[in-house]
Hints:
By secondary structure, the chain is α/β, with parallel strands linked by helices. It has helices spanning 9-76, 79-101, 106-128, 134-140, 142-216, 230-279, 288-317, 331-341, 343-348, 366-383, 441-451, and strands at residues 324-330, 352-357, 361-365, 389-397, 400-406, 455-458, 467-473, 480-482. Helix 1 (9-76) packs antiparallel against helix 5, helix 3 (106-128) packs antiparallel against helix 5 (142-216) and helix 10 runs antiparallel to helix 11 (441-451).
Amino acid sequence: MRLYRPxxxxxxxxxxxxxxVAPLLAALIHAALSVEHLVAQGxxxxxxxxNATRSSQLLVDEITSMERSARQFQVLGDATLxxxxxxxxxxxxxxxxxxxxxxxxALQRQRLESISLVESGVHSVITGSPHDAPEVVQALGNxxxxxxxxxxxxxxxxxxxxxxxxxxxxxxxxLQRSLVLQAMAxxxxxxxxxxxxxxxxxxxxxxxxxAIRHLGDGDFSRxxxxxxxxxxxxxxxxxxxxxxxxxxxxxxxxxxxxHISHExxxxxxxxxxxxxxxxxKVVGTLNAQQSEIAEILRDNSLQLQKLIEDLLDFNxxxxxASLLHRENIELDLLIEGVLEDHKVAILARQLRLDVxxxxxxxxxxxxxxxxxxDNLVSNAxxxxxxxxxLRVEQDVQGDRVIIEVADSGPGIPAEERxxxxxxxxxxxxxxxxxxxxxxxxxxxxxxxVHAHGGSIEVVNRTGQGACLRVVLPIHPEGEGDNA
Length: 483
């Protein structure tokens, strides 16, 4: 279809419809004409054989009538009987003429000429000689030969009727076979054309769907490649224009995050250090209310610092320049270290911690894997209620490591599970904290999981809460720097 590129999908549909229907319509017309021709052949054969049989029967009857009137004339010599004979003779001639106009076989036509010739001689003798002449008596003996030949001609006509019937049956069977073979050839051909045009029509639609999904997933590196009708290719060009615009927006957003994060860290550091000095009473003794305010300032400054670090981590995670510095890591010990870092937060919420870790050594980037586990645990703690349950499991299946972190919080609604890993997306569930998160923790986790060649998803678990599962290869094959 590269030689002919329709300008619109409507024209492509029209071309496909014509190419599929035209052979079927031609076959239908050919079948109708063939059947009509067969019916005409049958009608003509029926007309010929019926008329030939009827005329042959008349010929036999007329020869008998001529013989009877001729013999009566020969015995009685009555001129009236001669007139009857002449009248029968004329009817005989009319019947011979009718038979001569029909489609007879060569044998029948030869037999008819012989009968006509013998009868002509008999007629000449009877009408040209006295009734009691010896040659008349001799001529009357020829009527037996005429009757025998006329009867044989009748038998031949009946055989011809049977042969015509057999020929028509054979032609009908041959036509049936021809139509069946034609259908067997056309139906697969039509199906192949339908499949071809279905592919030609659906391929650009699938390409568009794939391009839109890539844009929806935040993958702006692939240019939409839409091949097909011109209107769909133009739509692909629009999608590519939108991809470039989104890529520019993404780059602007990354630059903004980079600058704003660094700009916020400097004043925030001063606020955090000042609040710590006040809380530690370095500048003087504080009363109870002042101490409480100093604690609030320090706690919120620490949370704000964590949010800014998330922004920086996201900026690094989404950058292609971020490489894996691989080393052999005891993953179970790394997870234990992350849980130890969160011990204070776990005790503050009085969470019941269920930990099941299987010793395993993986190849990966220590800092990125630590950030990955830290974000999962932080997210679970943030959404866990007081005195709730926090479950952390790590198992090995073949050449993969499976990490599951589950909480007993409100859970993640089914309609939000696909989007929770998108950057800056914050679900409908409310976190148990005074400062709302940036929505980057799970997005960073996904980037680091993909960098290690793994996958992350929300899995269904009985009971309340959310469960996040990470699957990592023990020996990832992604690009990076070996430490």
